[in-house]
Structure to design on (249 residues):
């Protein structure tokens, strides 16, 4: 399933500052239903702040966020998640005293459903991310790659229409990245899920993105296809030219 053309998320003139620092400055963005948007830029460019504003963790100082045609600016993360826009975190914080399945079921409860359906749905998601064999083991026993999958499973349990992924590949070795990329592609193809993902690994950005947004110092430096932005001299100067050599590894 490719982008339908219908806009699902609109960010208009969003600004956010922390004391004197402008973390976001006049950011505009439109995302189509079913689109996969990569978000790149140097450290401190404002990528995570943009996700935080979109998902309600931070209220913007200026501008507006619309999701599914509704103004959600400043709405709580919980309300936005219930409406179908869900994010993953770079730092995974599972409940250590619970099993993998219980952690996922807890997230699934956000979408109020009968207990039997909740359990079945949670198990489906655990299997989909490849953690079936770990379902009844303690979440803290998981290695890094497993924790990443658990984080993804918790987000998927909430049945997102829009899923925001913050460096979901960080900490994974190349062989562990492939199945995650396949899963993300399948989410769009099979479920029509819209994906926004912050990523420093350019090979993943090139492979997955329909479009790439480049942030630099809180502003949109460029937006376009991966081929367009990676050949843009401003992007090369601000980001790609000085990128650490993890681009393809
Ligand atoms: N809660 C906060 N309080 C103060 N400054 C903050 C806060 N959150 C972010 N910043 C600052 O805002 C700027 C943008 O940070 P942000 O985390 O959004 O960048 P990023 O593009 O996600 O960077 P990275 O790639 O390193 O994760 C940075 O200068 C950062 O130090």
């Amino acid at each position: 399933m490719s982008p339908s053309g219908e806009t699902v998320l609109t960010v208009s003139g969003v600004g956010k500052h922390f004391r004197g620092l402008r973390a976001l400055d006049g950011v505009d963005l439109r995302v189509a239903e079913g689109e996969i948007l990569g978000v790149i830029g140097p450290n401190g460019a404002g990528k995570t702040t943009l996700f935080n504003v979109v998902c309600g963790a931070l209220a913007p100082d200026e501008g507006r966020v619309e999701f599914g045609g509704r103004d959600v600016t400043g709405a709580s993360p919980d309300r936005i998640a219930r409406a179908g826009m869900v994010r993953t975190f770079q730092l995974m914080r599972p409940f250590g005293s619970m099993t993998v399945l219980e952690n996922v079921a807890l997230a699934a409860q956000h979408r109020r459903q009968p207990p039997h359906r909740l359990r079945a749905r949670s198990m489906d998601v655990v299997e989909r991310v490849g953690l079936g064999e770990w379902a009844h083991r303690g979440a803290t026993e998981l290695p890094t790659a497993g924790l990443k999958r658990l984080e993804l499973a918790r987000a998927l349990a909430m049945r997102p229409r829009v899923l925001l992924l913050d460096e979901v590949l960080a900490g994974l070795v190349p062989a562990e990245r492939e199945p995650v990329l396949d899963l993300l592609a399948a989410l769009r193809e099979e479920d029509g899920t819209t994906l926004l993902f912050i990523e420093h690994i350019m090979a993943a950005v090139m492979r997955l993105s329909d479009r790439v947004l480049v942030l630099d110092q809180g502003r949109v430096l460029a937006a376009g296809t991966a081929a367009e932005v990676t050949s843009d001299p401003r992007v090369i100067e601000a980001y790609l030219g000085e990128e650490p050599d993890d681009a393809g590894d």
In short: The chain has two domains: 1-84+160-249, 96-159. The pocket of adenosine-5'-triphosphate is lined by residues 18, 21, 23, 41, 43-49 (CB under 6 Å). The first strand starts at residue 7 and ends at 18. Residues 96-159 form one domain.
